[in-house]
Specification:
Elements: H1 2-11, H2 22-41, H3 54-60, H4 71-81, E1 94-95, H5 104-116, H6 126-141, E2 149-153, H7 156-172, H8 175-179, H9 182-185, E3 188-193, H10 198-206, E4 214-217, H11 227-239, E5 243-250, H12 262-272, E6 275-279, E7 304-308, E8 320-324, H13 327-334, H14 367-403, E9 407-409, E10 417-422, H15 426-439, E11 443-449, E12 452-458, H16 466-484
Parallel strand pairs: 1-11, 3-4, 3-5, 5-6, 6-7
Antiparallel strand pairs: 2-8, 7-8, 9-10, 10-12, 11-12
Length: about 500
């Protein structure tokens, strides 16, 4: 046995995965960083997005590597097969989905976080304090009390699920975590508008209530939840024996960016004794802008708020966040005693509450660092100005659409999302979206409004300018004319001039 051990140790004499030559590694690492910075600095010189060639897909389909490879060779493969075919949301012409553009500051902060390799599940170390500092900032920003809690998660889909779980524990009590929702829980109902994000329905499914327990309320003429209809549905459900326990209001709906009447919903929830949650995936951070923040009146009354720093906060993916008014209720929904998570009076295991007491993850990355760097470096005033500017650009696109007879506006512009179409049928507009994306000029997405296929432009990237809006409009008109056989001349700006 000793001989076997000696032979094994001899075979892995150099067991560390650190570089054999730090100088060589340093040179390559500096080149990688320079290339990454160049990629952002020169982003306009490349397409927003381009289709992945079959040969590139095939090149990635290899057997599991058993032997080591040279880092430079691995990096070459990345440069050839991965980097050119990313989503494109770093590019100012990306307007498809509500994806933030990230920043070079956030990129290097992510690198620093990787170097620390900190696990933010718990224990007493400074990365936890960085996250707690951001929780404190958000508590003050949204007018929450001192006892409010917060936690970083992957994104608002997870934050919304966690909010449902906190509301569930608050309504059913701690035994629901041990015994399930039971017969009482089967009578619980939740509410959101028909325009709410699909992750709310999914959260009800995962939480054990089932998607039918979510009442989808009609929207008014402004695409906001109809508060009168909400009140009536709650009354009907109570009359037949159901137990309303949660209302989720939207601060920026996914289709057009509508903001529900948060104050009215808050007052209704308070009168009915119902948990009031706000899905503020991107819209909640409008509170950073003095121009836009008044639209969020009432958000300070929420029991919980979900938001993404990686959208309007411009933090690199991923950086979702959940803020809960009653920190103790938040803790009761997730904390679980375990010997290996015991808290001590001193040493590395000191301190409480740990982040693992506030969510399902024990292993957690240092998402807070890139957010902390972003907030510290740019300040909330500048970030708020970026938000206001993206809304102004949406208004500019609205005016371009209204001034062009070949285009049709499908919804009023609330924040930063514009839904329009070429004056042709749905099939033509569907092809236009793909044409524009494949051209590399811009990357809009699509949705359906009042039965009509819509070209959807969500302006989130801090790099986007009026010239990028002009390029999108020109491209839509150009490809629309081609698809309908119109004889017009439209010059789409070249990539480098966008």
């Amino acid at each position: 046995m000793n001989e076997i051990i000696r032979n094994t140790l001899a075979g892995v004499a150099n067991g560390s995965l650190d570089p054999q030559d730090w100088s060589e590694f340093r040179a390559l690492a500096h080149r990688m960083l320079d290339d990454a910075i160049d990629g952002i600095a020169n982003v306009r010189a490349r397409p927003v997005w381009q289709p992945i060639p079959d040969a590139v897909r095939a090149a990635m389909r290899t057997d599991l590597p058993r032997e080591a490879s040279d880092l430079a060779e691995v990096y070459r493969e990345f440069c050839e097969h991965v980097a050119p075919y990313a989503t494109g949301n770093v590019h100012p012409g990306f307007m498809g989905w509500v994806h933030g553009g990230g920043t070079a500051v956030g990129m290097v902060a992510e690198m620093l976080a990787a170097g620390l390799n900190a696990n933010l599940g718990g224990r007493d170390h400074m990365p936890i304090e960085v996250e707690r500092q951001i929780v404190a900032w958000m508590r003050g920003l949204f007018g929450f009390p001192q006892g409010a809690s917060g936690i970083f998660v992957t994104g608002t889909s997870m934050a919304n699920l966690m909010a449902v779980l906190v509301a569930r524990t608050s309504a059913l009590g701690a035994p629901a975590r041990q015994y399930g929702i039971g017969n009482d829980g089967a009578l619980f109902t939740a509410y959101a508008s028909k325009a709410a994000h699909g992750c709310i329905s999914r959260a009800m499914d995962i939480a054990g209530f089932g998607t039918d327990a979510l009442r989808k309320i009609d929207v008014d003429a402004d695409h906001r939840i109809d508060v009168a209809a909400l009140r009536a549905q709650i009354a009907v459900d109570r009359d037949v024996g159901f137990e309303p326990f949660l209302v989720t209001a939207s601060a920026g709906t996914v289709d057009i960016g509508a903001i529900d009447d948060l104050k009215a919903v808050a007052e209704l929830c308070r009168a009915e004794g119902i948990w009031f949650h706000v899905d503020g995936a991107f819209g909640a951070l409008a509170i950073l802008s003095s121009e836009v923040a008044p639209m969020l009146e009432g958000i300070e009354l929420a029991d919980s708020i979900a938001l993404d720093f990686h959208k309007w906060g411009q933090v690199p993916y991923d950086a979702g966040f959940l803020l809960v008014r009653d920190g103790e209720r938040h803790r009761q929904a997730f904390a679980q005693p375990a010997a290996y998570l015991g808290r001590e009076a001193r040493g590395l295991a000191a301190g409480t509450v740990w982040p693992c007491d506030l969510g399902p993850d024990l292993s957690r990355g240092f998402r807070a660092l890139k957010t902390w760097f972003t907030l510290k470096t740019f300040g909330t005033d500048r970030l708020g100005a970026v938000i206001a500017r993206s809304c102004a650009l949406a208004k500019y696109l609205e005016t371009r659409v209204l001034a062009e007879p070949r285009l049709e506006l499908l919804a009023f512009v609330n924040l930063n999302i514009v839904c329009f179409r070429y004056r042709a049928d749905d099939a033509v507009n569907r092809e236009i979206v793909a044409d524009v994306q494949e051209s590399g000029i811009a990357a809009p997405s699509s949705t359906t409004l009042d039965g009509k296929f819509a070209i959807r432009a969500a302006i989130v990237n801090h790099r986007t300018a009026e010239s990028d809006i002009d390029a999108l409009v020109a491209a839509v008109i150009k490809f629309g004319a081609q698809r309908t056989g119109e004889l017009i001349e439209v010059e789409a700006p070249p990539l480098a001039a966008q």
